């Protein structure tokens, strides 16, 4: 399906940057300067300053830290300001926040992605004909930018992946053992291997990451 975009070649698209890292903010601002149609109205290193700028400027696009997305969403609902959000964070992907963020933001960009790779994503969001992201809109659901919100497939063996998906669906070790026809001890061994490969510090963290990965479409 073709995603229709409004013709923004002859008009300026306004942006606000709300990111707590000054280095990341400067880098993003410099990168955006290569796009003549994109105009950064303001930058904010704190959530409070960002919300003030949101109210005053009402930008069309906001590039925002993932941890501020939900607060910004509530603020936008209360003020009836319509804008499109792009999450911009320090992690390679959204991990356990992917599902919640995907209900609010158009896409996700990591600090560590080169500008030449993320600027096309910002271009697509800035040219979208919708005033705000709507997870129920077919135009949003089919938008290629949404692929950036999905965590990558973990680097696990096929057997570990089965255990990982089962954990994400809420099954305990004994249930997983029964489903897979293996012992509980073997399941626990797979769990420890998964934690090690994904650099997870606890069973709770692994459960959270696995559940979110499943919500991204593993099944």
From TrEMBL:
One of its GO terms (molecular function) is DNA binding. It comes from the Bacteria. Residues 149-214 form the HTH luxR-type domain. InterPro entries: Sig_transdc_resp-reg_C-effctor, Tscrpt_reg_LuxR_C, WH-like_DNA-bd_sf. Keywords: DNA-binding, Transcription, Transcription regulation. GO terms for biological process: regulation of DNA-templated transcription. The keyword Zinc-finger does not apply. PANTHER family: DNA-BINDING TRANSCRIPTIONAL ACTIVATOR DEVR_DOSR. This is DNA-binding NarL/FixJ family response regulator. The lineage of its organism: Bacteria, Pseudomonadati, Pseudomonadota, Gammaproteobacteria, Lysobacterales.
């Amino acid at each position: 399906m073709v995603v229709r975009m409004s013709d923004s070649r002859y008009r300026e698209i306004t942006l606000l940057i709300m990111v707590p890292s000054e280095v990341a903010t400067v880098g993003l601002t410099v990168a955006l300067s290569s796009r003549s149609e994109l105009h950064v109205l303001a930058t904010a290193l704190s959530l409070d300053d960002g919300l003030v700028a949101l109210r005053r400027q009402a930008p069309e696009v906001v590039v925002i830290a993932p941890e501020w997305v939900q607060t910004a969403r509530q603020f936008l609902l209360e003020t009836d300001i319509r804008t499109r959000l792009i999450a911009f964070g320090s992690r390679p992907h959204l991990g356990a926040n992917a599902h919640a963020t995907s209900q609010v933001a158009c896409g996700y960009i990591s600090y560590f992605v080169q500008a030449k790779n993320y600027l096309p994503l910002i271009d697509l969001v800035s040219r979208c004909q919708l005033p705000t992201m709507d997870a129920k809109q077919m135009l949003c659901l089919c938008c290629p930018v949404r692929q950036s919100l999905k965590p990558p497939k973990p680097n696990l063996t096929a057997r570990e992946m089965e255990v990982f998906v089962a954990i994400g669906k809420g099954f305990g070790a004994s249930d997983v053992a029964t489903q897979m026809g293996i012992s509980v001890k073997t399941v626990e061994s797979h769990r420890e291997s998964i934690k090690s490969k994904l650099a997870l510090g606890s069973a709770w963290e692994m459960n959270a990451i696995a559940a979110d990965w499943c919500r991204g479409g593993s099944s």
